[in-house]
UniProtKB/TrEMBL annotation:
Keywords: Proteasome. The lineage of its organism: Eukaryota, Metazoa, Ecdysozoa, Arthropoda, Hexapoda. One of its GO terms (biological process) is proteasome-mediated ubiquitin-dependent protein catabolic process. The gene is PI31. Belongs to the proteasome inhibitor PI31 family. This is Proteasome inhibitor PI31 subunit. Residues 177-186 have a biased composition (Basic and acidic residues). It comes from Drosophila suzukii. Residues 155-171 have a biased composition (Polar residues). Residues 155-270 are annotated as: Disordered.
Length: 270
């Protein structure tokens, strides 16, 4: 049961009066009521069962009870209560200081430990009466117990906490991309998000330099063909990289129309 979804008034404290009647004659100090409130929260709203006092870490065979055991508050400085839930053992330990009560909850199996510090003189107004008379801020105390003492340690299924997960279907090829600007590109090329579509049908030159993965075609230059005379459109001048062969047309020598260096003199070494 998810205690966060239950208001800490009315039915939430239903059953406290019965518990209080069983311990009323034993309550001697204000810290007793704060420990009894933890016990009420564990047994009613978290399905714990108390199996006695002490700090023995051996899992008992007994099922336990919703009642506080005998001598649970006999010690003037500490409390030691043992609980079971789903065949797991938990220890609830309390230590009384001058003006505070430090409570620890330990999962013996996982070794998880939580703690909370409360002030009996501030939170408990009386030791006789109903829950609102005993602890006017009982709702806030219970919420602190849940958040600081129980949630860090206990993850059992008595609290019916459900989480909804939504799985979005993968968009098909025909589904529009809400982040796309303009018409989709053809040919599977890539446009980095946030770039404007090609204006006025200009060629998509230079866009590949903006893609760190090298997709989207060529960069600032036109695509370099694998063979001369491949495909339509303007092509860069191509001089072969292999050794020159005078018997092959076009490989008789370096193209004489290459740009010459400034003040070039062919007879410089003559």
């Amino acid at each position: 049961m998810d205690t966060a979804a239950v208001p800490k008034t009315g039915d939430f404290f239903y059953g406290w009066d019965l518990l209080y009647k069983t311990i009323q004659a034993e309550v001697a100090k204000k810290s007793d009521l704060l420990v009894a409130l933890v016990h009420f929260l564990l047994t009613k709203h978290y399905n714990f069962r108390c199996v006695g006092i002490g700090d023995d870490k051996t899992l008992p065979e007994e099922e336990g009870s919703e009642l506080l055991p005998d001598s649970w508050n006999d010690d003037d400085t500490k409390y030691s209560l043992r609980y079971v839930h789903d065949k797991c053992l938990y220890l609830l330990l309390g230590h009384i200081t001058e003006d505070a009560l430090l409570i620890n909850l330990m999962d013996i199996n996982t070794k998880k430990v939580s703690n909370i510090c409360v002030e009996p003189e501030t939170l408990v107004a009386a030791v006789k009466g109903g829950i609102t008379t005993l602890m006017p801020s009982a709702s806030e105390v219970v919420e602190r117990y849940r958040r600081e003492l129980l949630d860090p340690v206990f993850t059992g299924n008595s609290r019916e906490v459900t989480t909804q997960t939504t799985t979005s279907p993968r968009p098909s090829v025909s589904d529009p991309d809400p982040l796309r600007i303009g018409e989709p590109r053809r040919g599977g090329s890539f446009i980095p998000g946030g770039f404007e579509p090609r204006p006025f049908g200009f060629p998509d030159i230079g866009r590949g330099d903006l893609d760190p993965l090298g997709r989207g075609g060529s960069g600032n230059l036109f695509a370099f063909p694998s063979r001369p005379n491949m495909g339509p459109g303007p092509l860069p001048r191509f001089d072969p990289f292999s050794p020159l062969n005078p018997n092959v047309p076009g490989q008789g020598g370096i193209n004489p129309d290459h740009m010459r260096p400034p003040n070039w003199n062919p007879d410089y070494y003559m």
